Task: inverse folding
């Protein structure tokens, strides 16, 4: 398998309702989407 390209996308997704823990309230989830393409044989 030979990887031909890798792309990364930052995706902040809004939560349906705020999520609170002891020190902070979160309204968005921070995510990274990786797209890895390989050469076809």
Result:
């Amino acid at each position: 398998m030979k990887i031909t390209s890798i792309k990364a996308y930052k995706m902040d997704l809004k939560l349906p309702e705020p999520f609170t823990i002891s020190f902070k309230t979160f309204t968005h989830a921070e995510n990274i989407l990786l797209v890895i393409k390989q050469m076809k044989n």
Summary: The chain has one domain: 3-38. The chain has no helices and two strands.
